[in-house]
Amino acid sequence: MDTISSALSARHSGIEFLDALRAAAASVRRGVPIEVIAEQMRLPDRAISIAKAAVNPQSLGNDAALAIQQSGSAGFISFLASFGALAAMSSSTVRIPIGTPIARVSQGGVGAIDSGEISWTPLSRMTIDGESALAPRKLVYIDALTNEFEKFGAQYSGALNSQRARDYALMQDRMAFDVLTDSISPISGPTDAVEVIQALAAAVSVGAGSSLWLWASAETVKQMSLLRNGLDAPLFPDLRFDGGEISAGIKVVPTDAMIAPGSPEARAIMLVNAGGVAYDPGRIESDVSRQAVLQMVDETAPGAQSTVSLFQTNGVATRLTQFFGLKRLRASAVAWVSDVTFGGSP
Asked: Which residue among 36, 158, 199, 277 is buried most deeply as judged by most CB within 10 Å?
């Protein structure tokens, strides 16, 4: 009988110990100092060590990396507005909420003045097609760092978040380029800088309130900024290697999304009337994990793959998921040339 009572008592104590251990580990993951946990929960040193090991299996140090990563991801999101062609152009687009049906009108309303009174010709036809609604597009960004890298953290957070923002903006711009040029064939023929710009401008229609944006690779923008005219003056005096404006106020934004990988690389150039593009930036959701298992490749593939456990390698990963809306409202809002190289004077 005494043996049974002792066993039950030991089992009860073990359950309490495990419950306390889980609570301690959860507190450590939330960034609560280990000294505070030890004092408040009155756990033995062994339990505290196990809790720390569960969160940080290699160094058994205080797990500040997760808190740093969480605050860093928030700072990273604030960087996104400063990078990328889509982010730069977004303020000039037509803001339409995701899921909103886009009306197609075969004849617009026309006002006429007659005998001092204004009369209006009614719309002859308007259709709302569910397929033309601004559909959500999903973008997922994942990066993984070692806990040791994060520990050195604060002084490098600005540079790290800047690089993350550039990587994220590149993914976003690539998606945007595919959406904006969908079913539009590239213009072929012109290679001279002026002729290329003229061909693009002729293909893109404008109206009151239009805003023209030229997307090009950083290398293409650099080449354009160095071009000289017959008088040895800059061909585009308001253009720098990192962007600016060219003739008639066309804004130029460099983005490496305009580079098609290959040998040699093909550099595209695209002109967009932002007033003919519907856009909803949506929102960015941030998640941080120390337990995920990742496949460390840029392009995933089906079947068995080599994976890495963040728990076992002492890593921490950030995942950003953005649902945003982007749609070209008319074909004449976009024109592009598939391969350009501007080297030397035109």
From this structure: 277
